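FAQ: What does a multi-protein file look like?

Like this. Sequence, then tokens, then the next protein.
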Amino acid sequence: MPVLALVSAIFVVGFEQIVQWKYGATGMVGLLLLTVGIKAKSPALSSAGAVLLAMLVTGPAL
């Protein structure tokens, strides 16, 4: 069980670093809103984070 927790923690930290590198501070705020919204079961926060991340990803295409 501790191995699974360690692997998931490494995956989460790695994913956060990739988002920070590619999308900057705004990407981290979007990811933070999405994560906090899911943990708190708040549709408003998770939706705001998802919309922010979607706008960052599709921004240049618009």
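And here is the next protein:
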Amino acid sequence: MEQSTGGEGEQSLVENLVSVSGAFENSEDIAAARDLARSFLADVQAVHGLPVSGRAMGMVQLVVSELVTNARKYAPGPCLLTLEVTGGAVEVTVWDSNPTPPAILAPDPMRIGQHGLEIVMAVGQSFTVRREPVGKRITTAIALADDPGGDVTGRRL
């Protein structure tokens, strides 16, 4: 696991890179991935002074859990989780070795299971799948703070 911040002499923390990465190989590592997200966001708030709402803390852990679970379930070998603060949000990226894009199913309240990506897309501000020379990367962004008016930030369905 690595954590980094931007170079010296920069004026604004927003311009600094604040990120952490971890590799996960086993199903039991899903809990470790959630713990990494929780610890990272606690540091973002305590060390770097950025606001992190309770909603953001919960949503990031949920998204990490869903994406790492899918990577462990559908791709051989380890997956890589990267969390990066950028522009008032935390980008959650999971790389795995399977180049096949995930099947994104239409919402169906009668379906049992397979709602993970549906949830990720509902709570995130963005959602991208990018093929890599080996495997793919799935990225979503979660706002660190809720809207001052009380509305949660994120994409509306």
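Q: Is there any per-entry metadata?
A: Some entries carry free-text notes. For the entry above: The beta strands are 2-4, 18-24, 79-86, 89-96, 126-131, 136-143.
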